[in-house]
Amino acid sequence: MRNFMLISAFAVAFMFACKEEGKPAETPPAAPAKPMPPPPPPPTAKAEPIIGEFTLMSFTGGPTIDALVKAGGKISNDLVDLGRMLYYETRLSKAHDVSCNTCHGLANYGVDGKTLSTGHRGQLGTRNSPTVYNASMQFVQFWDGRAKDVEEQALGPITNPVEMAMPVDGKRVVATLESIPEYADAFKKLFPNDAKPVSMENVGKAIGAFERRLITPAPFHKFIAGDTKALTEEEQRGLEAFHQVGCTSCHTGAGVGGTQYQKLGAVKAWPELHDKGLGDITKKAEDDYKFKVPTLLNVAKTAPYGHDGKMETLEEAVKMMAEYQLGKTVSDAEVKSIVVFLNTLTGEIPTDFIKEPSLPKSTAKTPKPDKKK
Ligand code: HEC
Ligand code: HEC
């Protein structure tokens, strides 16, 4: 609206200027002036910006999604290929029946869709499995942040007794991979300077490399990069509501989360909260009930929600966040609007990139599956 008025004022001033300077024409008189174009339609509410001046700043502090994709692209393809094999490798589990993909199904937006995950011998864990897509961009890994990056994180589940259940010393993992010549050769080639190329550390590096390529740009990212048509008006209203309600005080950056810890129940005690989160790791009372603010990319595809998977739907999660993290009661219309926005965070599954590779055969030396506890 303001722009239109400015332009009109300019045009009028310009017309006057012309008249003043216009000398009696020596050239033949100009053709009679064309009829004035019809006046522009009266401006509607559409012309008012939906997105507030500061809204987008919540998401532009850290690296952009494009920068993250680029960084992933620079990692050695051979290392990424080995990481993909290990990601699907059930022989990294004690009974040869669980892989990373069991709980983080790549064709299923990186989750298992269960409240809590089941691992070795069907044992239940205590937390919900977060998605592996875009996990690498978060400032720490796990709900409680106990691993600093995806390379370190990848070693956790392999030796977790309720997940893949391999012995913690890592010897069985190394013996398994060394017994299969294709793996032994791949590690040797990728880590030529290591005295022992097949090591837990290098397993983590390979899986981490693969995960750093699991970045999924979404329509939202195009919008914050300046493509104003990437979101519909309704979606933009949802984004603005997300900001106005206060969600962006915690869910920030290109990942819309993954940049900080916050207390669960920041304003009002979170119901039935037994897990102390970060407090159990640091043993400091001030860290009790703090959790990593998770990325919300692909959140519409990763139900159920929260560290304990107790929030079943996105609507429920939005309401609880507003109430307990912000002390606000949101109307059903606001919830609906925010959910419309959250759907713009869904990217595309990189179908070719995640295809399960054919895995090399075991040899006589490969440790046999062990179904025992
Ligand atoms: C038995 C199910 C299970 C298996 C197998 C499993 N995970 Fe997980 N994963 C989980 C659960 C549950 C969590 C959350 C645990 C926590 O925060 O304490 C998690 C957390 C993660 C995270 C952290 C994501 C974030 O947002 O913080 C990453 C990354 C990850 N897993 C990758 C892997 C990789 C790589 C493998 C294979 C080496 C693997 N997982 C195997 C269940 C599993
Ligand atoms: C004070 C910080 C804070 C604010 C404000 C906040 N959140 Fe969260 N959010 C968190 C934390 C911490 C978690 C992790 C919850 C857990 O560990 O169970 C989370 C989890 C979520 C989840 C679940 C994600 C998943 O993958 O399971 C959604 C959805 C969500 N928030 C949306 C919102 C929305 C929408 C708003 C605004 C109404 C909001 N949040 C405001 C801190 C916050």
Walkthrough of the structure:
This protein has helices spanning 2-21, 65-73, 77-87, 100-103, 150-153, 155-158, 171-178, 181-190, 200-211, 219-224, 233-245, 278-282, 314-326, 332-342; strands at residues 261-263, 290-292. It has 373 residues and is mainly alpha-helical. The chain folds into two domains: 53-63 and 216-345, Cytochrome Bc1 Complex, Chain D, domain 2 (Orthogonal Bundle), CATH 1.10.760.10; 76-211, Cytochrome Bc1 Complex, Chain D, domain 2, CATH 1.10.760. Strands 1-2 form a two-stranded antiparallel ribbon. Helix 11 (233-245) crosses helix 14 (332-342). The model is unreliable at 1-25 (pLDDT under 50). Bound molecules: heme C (2 copies). Residues 130, 143, 242, 245-247, 249-251, 262, 264, 266, 291, 293-294, 296, 299, 302, 305-307, 317-318, 321-322, 325-326, 338 line the site of one heme C.
